[in-house]
Amino acid sequence: MIPQAFEYVSPATLEEALELAGGDGVKLLAGGMSLVPLIKLRLATPSVVVDLGRINGLRYIREEGGRIRIGAMTTHWEIESSPLLRTKCPLLAETAATIGDVQVRNLGTIGGSIVHADPAADYPAALCALEARVRLRSRSGERTVGISDFLVDVFTTAIEPGEILTEVEVPVEEARAGVSYQKMAHPASGFAVVGAAVRLRRANGKLAWVRAGITGLGPKAFRAVAVEERLDGVAVDAEEIRKAVAGVSEGVEANSDLYASADYRRQMAAVYLARAVAAALERAR
Amino acid sequence: MATTVAAPEPLVGKRIRRQEDPRLITGTATYVDDIELPGMHYAVIVRSPHAAAKIRAIRTEAALAHPGVAAVFTGEDTRHLGPVPCAASLPGLRVPQHTVLATDRVYYVGHPVAVVVATDRYLARDAADLVEVDYEPLPAVADPERALEPGAPAVHPEWPDNVAFTYHLENGDVDGAFAEADVVVRERIVSQRLIPTAMETRGVVASWNPGDKSLTLYSSTQIPHLMRTAVAKMIGLPENRLRAVAPEVGGGFGSKLNVYAEEALMGFVSMRIGKPVKWIESRRENYLVTIHGRGHVDYYELAARRDGTILAMKVKIIQDCGAYYQLLTPAIPTLSLLMAPGLYRFRNVRGEIVGAFTNCVPTDAYRGAGRPEATHCIERMVDILAAKLGMDPAEIRFKNFIREDEFPFDTGTGLSYDSGNYALPLRRALEIVGYERLREEQRRARAEGRLMGIGISAYGEVCGMGPSTAMPAGGWESATVRIEPSGRVTVLTGTSPHGQGEETTFAQIVADELGIDLNDITVLHGDTAVVQYGIGTFGSRTTPVGGTAIFLAVRDLKAKIERFGAMLLESSEVAFNRGVCVCKKTGRSVSLAEIAAAAYRALKLPPGEEPGLVATRYWEPPNFTFPFGAHIAVTEVDRDTGVIEIKRYVAVDDCGRQINPLLVAGQIHGGIAQGLGQALWEQAVYNEDGQLITGEMMDYAIPKATMIPYLECEHTETPTPVNPLGVKGVGEAGTIACSPAIVNSVVDALAPLGVSHIDMPLTPEKIWRLIHKGGGQ
Amino acid sequence: MKVSGSYSVPVDPETAYRLLQDPTVLARCLPGCQDVVQEGDETYRMKMNVALAAISGQFESIVRLAEPNFPTSFRLIVDGTGRIGFVRGDGLLRLCPDGSATIVAYEGEVHVGGTLAGVGQRLLDATANLIIRRFFEKLNRLAACPP
User: Fold this and answer.
1) Share of chain B above pLDDT 90, in %
2) Which of A82, A181, B201, B339 places its Cα 20 to 30 Å from the Cα of B507?
3) For B169-223, where are the alpha helices, taking DSSP H only?
């Protein structure tokens, strides 16, 4: 558990960090909850670690024009406990609260988590359901990418060398909406064996609008668009909902590991999605 | 000279906070990694990534050239060291030569191949990457049953059948009983390999003093004295030139009841480089190369009458030994056989053990050491029998328990249960859980399609290890109780507590016996230069055996105290009580401190008496002790996911007299937690290549505090006649009792679906498949 | 760990077969390969550099092409040893014509040892499939625009 030697740099500004990003053997350090264990196991052997922790202006949660902008270095704990998010984007706050454990949430950051793109991470389910966007800065400028385009494959995002993810942007949730994140947590790691994030509205005993994001099932989290369409207009009835979500795993190359086979995961994705829908309905007005 | 205030009321039996805790929770305790010695070097061990391979070559030049590196040693350099010892002996035991470092072959992933020594741990780790080993991989086998099949890869070429040993016992008329039985039930039951996961990994600091040619070994161990004897032999050093010290040890659970290659290796390294050297095991190494627990595949058969009377049992245990033995590897399953009949009266037993070599790390003692496996099996079989006969599982147990008037009871496996009242805790547990109401609730739940189950575990266990004739290295324990000139007391115990709290327990005993304040007593252990030879801490023996030795030493001292008191009070009629010696005639008294001062000053001595106030005792227990109890688990299974919820957990345990109920509760809680771990979450998994794929705490799910349900714990107290304290030992009982309560409960929950047995761990997917594919295993 | 699947390559089987047997093509498709050296008949030594998120490892690799059956099938064996562990992949590749393209079906085993095996269990499946996916993506790009 001893890392290979590396140079540690702690820039004070984003510009300095951007100068270093993308260099040979350079890794950016956010909360360290994923990177540091990899370094200690020598699965990662960066020659330079650039710590983003000292940079002002990457930790914030603010509302602007119907959207909420969250700095990449905002910790899970800050997101979980933010009064703004708990009222205006409760899905994200609720999801953050399920990550790992208290120690992890005190240090882990939303930006670090998204860029790491672990297929079993929790945020991506919520972010897909929220149709979130991420902001990427490089020395030559800035671009915004939708989360579904940003998540490319297992541990793979659309980030280019030299880019730093600086911000996540989510919508302000409609007051009447109901949201929920339900997951089956791995008993050792706490990662999502499957996780389902749902936002919906109800009207006249029916689902009136649904967004659903699934994580843990396949190589990356995804928005279950086909299921959303099947759920739209469905009566608030457990059996109807169960039928509508049953196909959530179709076409997904499901992960398989010691704890849960691909088959089981496929079934559980539907079960937890149905539970997320039920929980969200309870809260919808 | 200070006088102390005598303790106002007895401390034994009280929930007293631990003397150990202040230093532990303020971070001022010294663990082996806290030890810093001048000139200390660091060692990193290079280990095999293959489960089986020939070593064609090892090149160390690059590592040697790395800055800071003082030396690199391989199996060639350590060839002359003695083998890692196995203290167990069984007829026909095949013992592989277990060298400290691999020589021409490696036999399991993690097998140590070389050691790199450098001036700091970072340089050592970097240099370790530069050691080049040419391996020629060979076929490996990781599953014990597959290892025993013809044609399986031979773990050790000299024994191609991979049989490590066989062991038989037979009592009574087993075939006759099976022939006359109305019903026979059979099952294959697995107690999976577990990783003990002590909080502190292992570590060694070895310090060779070239001036007086002595070696000090600090090691995170449960048995410093035994380890010293063994390691002295391995490295060829006279025993009395080796000092072994167990500093603060962060838990062992049996995994440190052992003598490991690294202990001798670090001694060797320090002697060679002439400097102290430290090796600290990483968690990954700990998972890979510290012994694993359990590893049984058991085949059980029970023969019974229609009325539920069990007549006989046949047991076949296949023990996954691993590639080598550690200290007690082959002995552990013999403990399973000893406890196979559990609390039941039948004496017709046929038992067979087959030890299998596999390309895995050795198995050895882990909390319960053979008894959890046995209890799990017999309690599962009794439930299976009850289900077959349509009998209530509580009723069938009451029917078969050894009765109160049948003690001492000689079991069919050669044990003599000294005392017991098995119906008592079960009745109490059933009462606490509200059994009748629960069965009604279960009927209602089943009508609603809910899967609710009730599981009973009535367990007995054998501990307070133990009579020396039955123990590989002796089972007595030593104590020296020293009253200092000031009247303060120092207790030297040969046991080696590492979290159990005996510094407190022993102080309570001594405080009561001498009538002094708890804080005037210091308990020392773990340092072979300070404490007389002892056996150590394991097998729930520290209080029953170690505590008894202390109690007897104190009794000797009390007699001497009275003799000095009589001299000082010039009277023959004196009594020592509550810290003072009083003349019964005149009422004059003299304090313990005054007596101590007089005993050391020796101005005047009683006739024939020696100065000083010290007593040493070595106590040989006449028997094991036999705690027992009953646990009941109520569970509900989520049909859609297979997730199990424990709705209630009741434990009624009888560990005899409780010296400190707070510590007893801690042991029960911790024991149950580890039992739950086995039942629900833990499993050490080797893939078919012999790679340990549950290699980190990310994959191997040990219980967290949030995963443990509320535990409703009570006790009955039937003191044991085996020792004067009446204490049976309680360190392992919780683990022994727990797993069958859980599995019985879940099988009960799924019984309407035709499920009759499930193997641990009861993962959600396993349960889900039983529900959705219908019955079977 | 068993792996199996199939990918479509936009050339005919004979061309696909020749591409797959070409060590420089293999080096471009296997992760981060450099310094291809022929060791023997159909055996090549190369340095593989696998980088996935933060994880990166260098592997000294031997790539062997066995059981040649032009243009229908052959066996591809990759043996990589590195500090973070060793990987051995052994797969049978079958090529079937599909119009003007070829379906390459693979079936094989991946064995992993060392640190990777001990700590990577959860993601081995997904990672192996990712590497295979990328292999065929790169192969397709090379097939579309031959070097």
Assistant:
1) 97
2) B201
3) 174-180
**In-domain check, residue B126:** no
Co-location of A126 and A201 in the same domain = no
Domain C2-144: state its class.
alpha beta
B326 touches chain C (CB under 8 A): no
User: What pLDDT digit, counting tens, does each position of A9-48 carry?
Assistant: 999 999 999 999 989 999 999 999 999 999 999 999 999 9
The A residues from 86 to 145 touching B (CB cutoff 8 Å) are none
Give phi and psi for B401, each to the nearest 5: -55, 145
Last residue of a domain, one of A140, A171, A202: A171
How far is it, in rounded angstroms, from Cα B493 to Cα B476?
A: 12
Domain region containing B557? 21-27+476-619
DSSP count for chain C of H helices, then E strands: 4, 7
For residue B457, list its beta bridge partners.
B631
Domain ranges of chain C: 2-144
**Residues from chain C contacting residue A186 (CB–CB below 8 Å):** 122
How many residues in chain A? 285
Taking a C-beta distance cutoff of 8 angstroms, is the pair A105, A75 a contact? yes
What's this model's pTM, rounded to 2 decimal places? Answer: 0.95
Q: Please give the C-alpha separations between residue B613 and each of B239, B484, B525, C107, in angstroms, as whole numbers.
A: 29, 7, 20, 79
Q: How far apart are CA B396 and CA B633, in angstroms?
A: 17
Q: Is A271 on the interface with B (CB under 8 A)?
A: yes
pLDDT of B496 over the 80 cut? yes
Q: Do residue B681 and residue A2 have CB atoms under 8 angstroms apart?
A: no
Residue of C nearest to B132 (CA): C83
Strand partners, A153: A156
Strand partners, B296: B191, B319
Calpha distance B313→B346 (Å, rounded): 8
Note whether residue B459 is domain-resident.
yes
Q: pLDDT tens digits, residue range B440-488? A: 999 999 999 999 999 999 999 999 999 999 998 899 999 999 999 999 9
Give the Cα separation of B645 and B265 in Å (integer). Answer: 47
| Burial class of residue A172 in the structure, from the number of CB atoms within 10 Å of its CB (0-12 exposed, 13-18 middle, 19+ buried) | middle
Of B174, B151, B154, the residue nearest B164 (C-alpha)? B154
Residue A1 falls within a domain, yes or no? no
Is residue B708 less than 8 Å (CB to CB) from chain A? no
pLDDT of residue A124: 98
Per-residue pLDDT reduced to its tens digit, A139-172: 999 999 999 999 999 999 999 999 999 999 999 9
The domain tally of chain A equals 3
Q: Which residue has the tokens 């994880």?
A: C55
Q: Which residue from B minimizes the CA distance to A269?
A: B641
Buried b (16+ CB within 10 A) or exposed e, A142-156: eeebebbebbebbbe
Phi, psi values for residue C133, rounded to 5°: -55, -50
- The three state secondary structure string of A131-161 is CCEEEEEECCEEEEEEHHHHEEECCEECCCC
CATH label of the domain that carries residue A217: 3.30.390.50
pLDDT class of C125 with cuts at 50, 70, 90: confident
Q: Cα torsion at B661, B667, B672, B674 (round to 10°)? A: 170
CA dist B206 and B270 (Å) reads 6
Distances (CA, A) of C52 to A34, A127, B231, C124: 13, 22, 45, 12
- For A117-141, what is the mean pLDDT? 97
Chain C residues touching residue A259 (CB < 8 angstroms): 122
Q: What stretch of H or E contains A166?
A: strand A164-171
Q: What is the structure's pLDDT at B376? A: 98
